[in-house]
Structure formats: C-alpha cells, structure tokens
Amino acid sequence: MVKKSFAIALTLMSLTSLGIVRIQPINAQYQGNITINSDRSISPSTAPIQQGNGVYVLTDDVIGGITVMASNVTFDGNGHGGGGLIVGVNYNLSPPTATGASNVTVKNFIVENSIFGISLYKTSNSMVINNTILGTRPPIVNIPVAQPTGGIYVVFGDSNIITENNLVNNYVGIYFSESRNNLIVRNNVVNCSNPFLLGGMAAIVFWGASNNTIYHNNFINNPIQAYDGSFNSPFSVNTWDAGFPAGGNYWSDYQTKYPSAAEIGNSRIGNTAYVIDSKNQDRYPLMEPFTTTPPQITLLSPVNQVYNESRVDLVFTTDEAVNWTGYSFDGKQNVTVTGNSTITGIPNGSYNLVVYANDTFGNMGSEIVSFTVSAPEAFPTALVIAAVAVTIAIACTVELLFFKKRRATNLKRNNEI
User: Which of 139, 158, 335, 399 is 20 to 30 Å from 209 by CA-CA measure?
Assistant: First the structure.
C-alpha cells in the first residue's frame, strides 16, 4: 500500500523524474497562429503540420495559438506544443466565430506557460488524450468569462472523453461549463492553484455542468480538489466513481480529511466516501494513486528445463494485490487459478506457458516460460494382459483340438472292437 507521505510527495519534482514534465524549454522555429479550417485546409500553408487522410501531425513547436475548426480529424502534437489549442471556435476573428466541431482527437501535445492549454468549444464526441499541460494561467486577474483558461477547458461540449492527460501547476486543471455526458478518466491533476486567491483554485471545476462521469483520476496537492457550482443554471450533479470494485479517484488529502478511513479488503478502496458537496461525492475513493502499470509476475515454477514427469508445479508471486490469476498452454483457453497449484496429465512435448495477473485497476500483467515434458513411458500392463489372454486362448484352443482328436480316435477304436 502506498503511504500518504509518498502520495503527498508526488509533486512537480517527482513528476519530472517520471517523465511527465518536460524540463527543456520550448525552442520553436515557427511563430504565428495556425488554423485547421472547417474545409480541412491549413492556414497558413507554411505551418509545420503534415496532413494526410484526416490526420494532422505537428512537426515543430509553435509560438502562437492553434485552432481546429474541422470535424472528423485527428491532430497529433507529436511531442510538440505552443501557445494553446482551441477546437471548435476561432478566437482570432473579431467577433470570435463559433462553428462547433465533432469527432476530433487531440493527442500528444505539450503546452507550457500559456494562457490556456486545450479548449473545446461547442465540441462533441471528441477525445483529448495523452497531453501534458503545464503552468497555464490568465495574464490578469479578471478576464472575460468566455476566454479559455486552465489546462483543459470545455464549454458547451458534450459526450467528450478526457483521458491520460498530465496537468501540472495550472490555474485550473480541468474546467467544464454547460457541458454534459463527458467522461474524465485516468488523468493526473497536480498542484493547481490561483496565486491571486488565498483559497486557491480547484483541480477540476463543473459550472452548470451535470451528468459527467469522473473516475480513476489522481488529484494531488491541489488547494481545492474539486468544485461543482452553477450560475443561472441547475446545480452541477456528476458521478465521481465507477462503482465497486472499479472504484473512484485518488485524492491526496483523503486520509487527512478522513483519518479513520480504512481499506476495504485488498480492493485499494476506502470505506468512507470523499464528499465534494451535498450533491456530489466519490463513494469509492482510491487509497493510492491510480496507475496503468500492470502487476509484475515472478514465475518460480515451471522453468525452462526438461521435466521427467507429466506434472509440473505452478508457483508464482506478484508485486501487488490482484483480483484474478490464470494460465494458458500454447495460446489455448485461459485456466483460472486462485494461487499456486499443480498441473497434471501433461503429455510429452514442448510447451509455452503464459501466466496472467489482473490487478484491481484492470491492468493485466503476464509472464511466459517454455519447458519440455519427457516422462518415461508407462509399463504397458494392458498390452501384457492382452498378450497373456491371447496366449491362454490359443492354448485352450489347441488343447480343445487335441481333446477332440483323441476322442475321435477312441470312438473309432471302440467301433472296430
């Protein structure tokens, strides 16, 4: 179990050591704003973007903003970034032109020290995945409400997926306004704060935004972890977990707020809900940060050798609690096991054995070994019995023939007398 002190220490420094934070500054060769227009053309045409079959790949860092107004496209940052990316509205026009967009995938961007990170405006059925956004904040305290700020900013955006993003040191981590049916899963939101407000700012904010689902995220070292509110709209009500045993989110202040909370079995889930407000709570908070690292399996038996018997012991360990283990011979159907066991009745031959372990976060680990069974042939008792039976049958037949012959001879002699 990860201790609370370790979780609290998972700050910018440790994220950097894990490769989440890029420590090299942007050294962009391209300066200026870029737009992917609704007809899929690129303005200006000299922008460092490769295009093909609805896929756009950024080939250099950009000093300037990037706008995507086209639907049914994928924009791959390719480890590059710039001054922020807006999907669905062109803020470079006056007044801003909002066309909306759908089915847009934005991935692999790195945005640092900008006014905003990635903004979805009137955008639906889209995905924001595997982006790193650092240090976004407004240039002044009071800015127009419509101006996007924060790591990921969604306005009038429905049925989008926000996943596997790393959001560190932002004014706001993720912000939703008037947006519904979005899925927020497997993100790291760390050290989000507002230096102009003593109370800080929330890692994730829902403003008049309900029916969204949030689970398997890590909220670490944020003065306010989550906030639901409204303005001239119904109060935000959202779902903060995926039920039991899947669980909800990791909150770095969980055991500080609930010192008596305890883990439910080996589920990694706390037995006390994390309350956000009267209408929102994470019923099954995680006791340690969510991870996508699969369990490591140490396979002690069998090993890569020849076994002289038709049975082998299956002995293995895992580096964490798991909720399912099993094995497969040569790609055949998995066999569930509850621990170490013995596999019997193995014919002679060479085999590949794969052992699997699935942890409580749904990560599947595996370990493979090759071995050979070359057991001595069993004594052919059945063949011997069959041979003896045949011999006896033959002997009986011969004896019967001799008996009949002697009887016939005796009858003939008696008749002659």
Answer: 139
